[in-house]
Amino acid sequence: MDMHDARQDGPAITQTYPGLDHLMIEFNQMKAFLDDPLVIVEADGVRVRDHRGQWYIDGLSAVAAVQLGHRNRPIIQAMTAQLEQVALALPLYAATEPAIALAEQLAKVTPEPLTHVKFTTGGSEANETAFKLARQYQRQTGHASKYKVISRYASYHGATLGALAASGGAARKLAFEPFPTGFVHVHPPDCYRCPFGLAYPDCGVRCAAIVDDVIRAEGPDSVAAFVAEPVIMSADGFIVPPPEYFTMLREICDRHEVLLIFDEVITGFGRLGEMFGADLYDTCPDMMTVGKGISSGYAPLAAVLLSARVAQAFWGEAADNVHFNAGHTYAGNPVACAAGLEAVRQLTNGALANGQAQGARLRAGLDALAARYEQIGRVDGHGLLLGVEFVSDRAARTPWPAAQLLCRAVAQTAKRNGLIGRMGDHIFVLAPPLTSTAEDVDEMLEILDASIAETLETFPASA
Q1: What is the DSSP string of 271-297?
Q2: Model's pTM, two decimal places?
Q3: CA distance 451 to 282
């Protein structure tokens, strides 16, 4: 392992890359970033190499997107071949063959009632589109007063204004308030720290039942949709709902003629061990937003999948003016759709099954670490989206204070030792590619184990 201290590069990094002085990286304070820089210059399989020559295991698949690994030759070849045909063609007036073919494939691999596709270029855009579709649908089906969108605290639905309004994390939202009206929040289904002070299963799944209360309190004639991720992975949350949660939401939404939207931008395309979270929880939404893994991160691509019932409201003669009156220049880009076609083909031809096997192997290894280290409060997640929460007192589930964050210290040590995961204040997330091998998984576990032990040598025993 290369134990090089990245901070030694801090003062000199802008000499090598003067453009860094002009760059703003997502969710980063650039002054701090330049003190401890990371520039990725090469990637292959499950590994990436930085500007100093150190290789890391990409335990986050870039950002839970590169489902099929870096330098995937068939995806690259599919994109290259499409570039030789057409890169962008009259998006206001024409379809392209890759977009048509991918829409057909998505209708086959998504839950059966989802039959129609509206392409976008990213997850935030997909969620914005879903909210607009929900409002227009309600208006065109005789419910013009239904406009509100209910979502959950701790959720994250994107960085654009409407998607952020639906999100639930104050830290990411405060700088941009006030938001558009019409967004209502409920507490998330957090069984580890129940916001209602209850314990599953005797709780009656209050986190789902309260949605009915909120719809009634807001007025059912004002609520258009409820949006939820199958697993919440926000700024520092990792929340997995109880198994009945989504079937209860489905019934509640049906009762009040509220559309149920699944945000599967992170969880879709095999990340949870099934093709979609909807498959895992055996519940079909009215709309599903997808992104990231749809192209395995090789091109900006996302989509909203609609049920036939919802899509029917937008079908008519030109004079009816019921079409969805929105679009984006690069939505359904043919090169991106060519990547998507190959990604879906690989997922249905072995990658999903391998992801299931390696997800079980990784979960078993993380559970073994939790049994050895009392500082690990829990391991949770599905498939190859797993979170490890660090606590100062396991029995009391006490988080570490802001001035003394064990999770961040462990994550920094793991990074120096060659493993990159998602670093939160309290939760370390691993979401490696579905193409990871058993040897890759074992190496991740070995590095994490060594990094926890190394960090604890100098870290206080408790908060």
Answers
A1: TTSSSSHHHHTT---SEEEE-GGGTTT
A2: 0.95
A3: 38
SS3 of residue 244 by DSSP: coil
435 CB-near residues (< 8 Å, 6+ apart): 45, 46, 67, 68, 69, 72, 351, 354, 355
Domain of residue 134, residue span: 88-332
Give the bridge partners for 5, in sequence order: none
Beta bridge partners of 120: 302
Q: What is the DSSP string of 103-141?
A: HHHHHHHS-TTEEEEEEESSHHHHHHHHHHHHHHHHHHT
**328 Cβ neighbours under 8 A, 6+ residues apart:** 91, 120, 121, 125
For tokens 């009656």, the residue is 204
Identify the pLDDT of residue 463: 55
Total domain count, the chain:
2
Q: What is the DSSP string of 174-212?
A: GGGPSPPS-EEEE----STT-TTS--TTTT--HHHHHHH
- Is the domain of 296 the same as that of 445? no
How confident is the model at residue 8, as a pLDDT?
55
In terms of C-beta distances under 8 Å and separation of at least 24 residues, what long-range contacts does 396-399 make, across chains too? 397/192, 397/193, 398/463, 399/425, 399/426
Q: Which two tokens stand for residue 152?
A: 């959950």
Residue written as token pair 């998504």: 110
Dihedral (CA of 380, 157, 38, 54) sign: positive
Q: How far apart are CA 227 and CA 123, in angstroms?
A: 13
Model confidence band, residue 236 (pLDDT cutoffs 50, 70, 90)? low
Q: Tell me the residue length of the chain.
A: 463
299 in a structural domain: yes
Tell whether 371 and 235 lie within a shared domain: no
Asked if residue 298 lies in contact with residue 251, where contact means CB atoms within 8 angstroms, the answer is no
Residue 59 resides in a domain: yes
E strands, 240-384, in order: 259-264, 287-290, 302-307, 376-382
| Neighbouring C-beta atoms of residue 100, cutoff 10 Å | 14
- pLDDT at residue number 233: 85
Pairing of strands 419-420, 223-228: unpaired
